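dumping the sequnces here before i forget
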Amino acid sequence: MRRLGWLSLPLWLTYAFLYLPIAVLVVMSFNASKTPYTWTGFSTRWYSELMSDDLIRQGFVNTMIVAVGATVIATVLGTLLAVGINRYFRSAWLEAYSLAPAILPDLALAIGLLALFALIGMTLGLHTVLLAHVVFGMAFVAAVVLARLGHTDPSLEEASRDLGAGPVSTFLRITVRSLTPAIVAGALLVFTLSLDEFVIAFFTDGPSTPTLPIVIYSMVRFGVTPEINALAALLLLVSFTVVISAQRLTKLTDTI
Amino acid sequence: MTSTQTAPGRGAARRRALGARAVFAGPGLLYLTAFMTIPLLIVLSYAFLTRGRFGGVKLELTLSNFSKALDSTYLSILGNSVLIAGITTVLALALGYPTAYAITRLPSRWRTVALVLVVLPFWSNFLIRTYAWIVLLNSEGPVNSVLVNLGIVGAPLDLLYNRGAVVVGLLYAYLPLMILPVYAAIERVDPQLQEAARNLGAGKIRAFLDVTLPLTLPGAMIGAIFVFVPSMGNFVVPELLGGGKTVMVGNLIRDQFLEARNWPFGAVLALSVMIFLVVLFAIQAAIGRRINGGARA
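..and the predicted 3d for all of it:
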């Protein structure tokens, strides 16, 4: 650190900027006071109130349905897509196309999907949110798996095919095995992205099945409550655990 | 798959490869076409259609949606969005570039930790991260109480519900998207180039300005796009931290689709944001080409 000299200043400034707000939220979530700004003592009261809030519980259930469904579908499609591009279909354009949903502004995808669902007369609900979340989920899985495929040796697969195995059985017996860490990491990322996704869900969800972020949105519009602080702390914990696990499985930072 | 195979053997191999393409890439590409490309084309076509009475569209071609967007009310909102997104991008560059540079100078095992710490907040709930600033900047919040208790200000400042708060919220949301591409660009610069510049008598700062900075410009430009474009399209931060006073083009698009139910006009507005995306990427590509050309010359 000493060698950085004055460069350590922007580094620490960035980390302070990124983590102080989060730290304040977490500390406040253990505040006994009902007015959110004065510290009156340690309490886990808001966490227990959170558990008995029906709106939040239902939102959580809805979100889990979408997140689990989108994770399963996006992981399968994204893995197949990455293998297809890397092993059978090398094309920079195709790769860019597959990763496009990760770069596309979420609002553009949101209004596009709303227009599509309206055009084909599909009722909005959790199923439409799920369909929407698979779009970007697939891109993130494909990106992580593609990065890993770049480091794997295709000669094992070639040997398997030369010995008469078809592409599918080669894929299942050889490729998937070497890709497992990347696939799991990709799945974890889709799960946490879907869990936290608001904009696309806001446009493609029906009124009777709000996901947790939509519930949070309607709560924070009306100001600060200690309950949201507790919910925030829990969600941060989930996201951080999931992303750090994904990082340990495969060097996500190498995907850059 | 060797070149000694006979022609029929090669034909069979090619058929197998085509089959494998269809099996592997087929479902994903079909899905993307159905749920990304077609939706975007629908929005594009809506820009040229007439609004329906209860949302949706009528199949009558018109350019009136575009002329409506040129109305001074909407132009000023667009201008406001460009200004706010622009300030956010400049601040992200000012903080993100030196941060990325510092990370590349860390020992390699710390580099990964430092990068993970940069991306970690980005993967957490966006609403929660925005909400954190409501807590922080509130008149009774921690920032104000620190300022008042230290005697820096006499009375709590109005830190929330203005443009400044929107910029801070957007910067908080998208700063990691600046740091990552800049880091990747600096990492790729051959350290020997800078050494060569130093050996030829350039000072540290001169070597940075003449060698590293131009070579990392395309990366910085990618970062700028990643910050600028979503900042323009964001409607949550202006609403929660701008207090409804700071309307940006994202809010306008949201309203046209969900409240005013003028989808064709909303489509034109969304298109204007996408045009920024395309133009900025074109500029980025041009910068990249010029630098590569210069390196070869």
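Chain A touches chain B through 97 residues (CB under 8 Å).
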